[in-house]
Amino acid sequence: MKGPLSGIRVLDISRAISGPYGAMILADLGAEVIHVEAPEGETSRFRAGPNYKGESFHYLSWNRNKKDLVLDFGTKLGKEAFFDLVRISDIVWNNFRPGSMERLGADYETLKKINPKIIYVSITGYGPTGPFKGRPAFDVAILGHTGVLNLTGEPGGTPVRPGPPVADMGGGIFAAIGALAALHERDRTGEGRKIDIAMQDVCISLLSYYFCQYFVTGAAPKPLDHSGHAFSVPYGIYKTRKGYIAIGPSWPRVARVIGADSLIDDPRFKDWDGRDQHRVELNAIIEEHLAKADAEDWVELFEAEDIPAGLLKDIDQVAVDPQVLHQNMILTLKHPLGGELTLAGNPIKMEGLSEEEYTAPPILNQHEHDVLTGLLGYSEEKIKNLRQEEKERTEERLSHVRKVW
Description:
The protein has 405 residues and is an alpha/beta fold. The chain has 17 helices and 13 strands. The chain folds into 2 domains: 9-207 and 323-400, Rossmann fold, CATH 3.40.50; 225-312, formyl-coa transferase, domain 3, CATH 3.30.1540.10. The mean pLDDT is 96.
């Protein structure tokens, strides 16, 4: 596929969200991403919930524009095939717990002996070393550990998980940035690099504003009334006669638009300190005025005064929003099992990227011939032997399970 990363080959052996999402970013930019899966498929492929022709929406969300190949690292020929791919690739991409890649015999120290120019990207929950390195890491646990959950919701209420998986997706994004930096450095030095991305660290970086606030004031930030902003009042989510509206920094213009001009010179609200001290009272007065009209009407009035404001929409509304469609953020792709699959698009817009060439997430082992024969030159007999080894190992494992039970 055409794009600025055309000619870069990535071996994506990750699973779930953080790894596949980050690798998909590289694929969207033109890299050849080969998603290497175990014979049973990676964990997100067959998860419960909505699916398209048996493929989980979870898997479909993060894996477009990739090729797919099954390899069993526990077999001699499976490991050999992976090493052969490492020799002709630029990036190896994983999101396993620390120690897992060593047990597979596919850690950085091993792979750089095979290809000294390889860039090795590892996404973990808490980092490759330290007291928490072996902890299982899921998005919500990381969000709690890093303080994100205690900053959401309303004062005195139950902490609220953000809609998107922030730690997972942030991990993938920062990993992609790290990989691009390593590619640039390799152009100058000819050497590969190991890149470690901890989802913990990603969340702390995303909370830079709050950490700075804490270190300056000595007080830990907490949720604010109306999902407000520590240094901007009014700001947040407000109820109208029908629906909710999100309002950004706009004082005193917002007071004029809602017909509350008297608030502007009110001693309680005249300066920021006063509005901060009386934010609950001010927000309540603003909502009283907003109750006179519907959210859509207020957005129109605010827009006329260049006040940043927006409706609170559901996904079905966003999917048909004219600006979203104009930005080509809703993609329809032909699926290899037939029919068309609709997905959220790529937010990176630049000349040379052709979204018309995008491909749907692949089915399991869809590109065996393209990769093993096309890239590695394997014969049909060698591929047959590889699959036979894989089958025998699977049967051996099943036999062991039966004996245990």
